[in-house]
Amino acid sequence: MQTGTDDDSDPAVERVRRGLAELAHDEDSAPDVPADVAARIGAALRAAGAPRHAVARPRLRRIHVLGLVAGLAAVTAGVIIGTSTLVRDPAPRFSQPGPTAERITVPRRPPAFPLTGPQLTGLLSALPDYGPLSDPRRRTACLEGLGHPATTPVLGALPVELTGRPAVVLLLPAGTDADILAVAVDAACHAAHGGLLAETVVARP
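The structure corresponding to this sequence follows.
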């Protein structure tokens, strides 16, 4: 939609129109305009056409300008923060330094049983040699320290050396009649500390 007034028309055309209007009402003016001059003026007016009206352009209010400035500032800040986040080195996964070699505790593998399966089954047919556990009271205390009742029968025994210290191998009943539980205990085992060094299960012959 176009809006406008006579003040918005072409200045040159308006000046000609005002001049002609003044001459038409001024009786003391110059003589009549020659026909050819009047024709040229009319042609010029027709060529100029209707007055061109300027399209009204809305003016930005101050609040709109402030809003645009704030929006541009927010977008710029977002771009800067996003870029710095992508470029920055990733944060460490752990807030504290990871465990060092001194702090890592590797589970100690139990030592290999000192006797083989045939050697263990061979003890069933030999007299038990309790060695340091020959005293029945010490032997009973050792069994209790291992979690076995004091009345548990010992099917065989033999003193051995394991991990550089004296030990005793004891053959005890297993969970089934077909198996035998063999335990190697520290020679100084007692009720408060069974001193279990190694254990294994072998089948009865």
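Confidence is low (pLDDT under 50) at residues 1-8.
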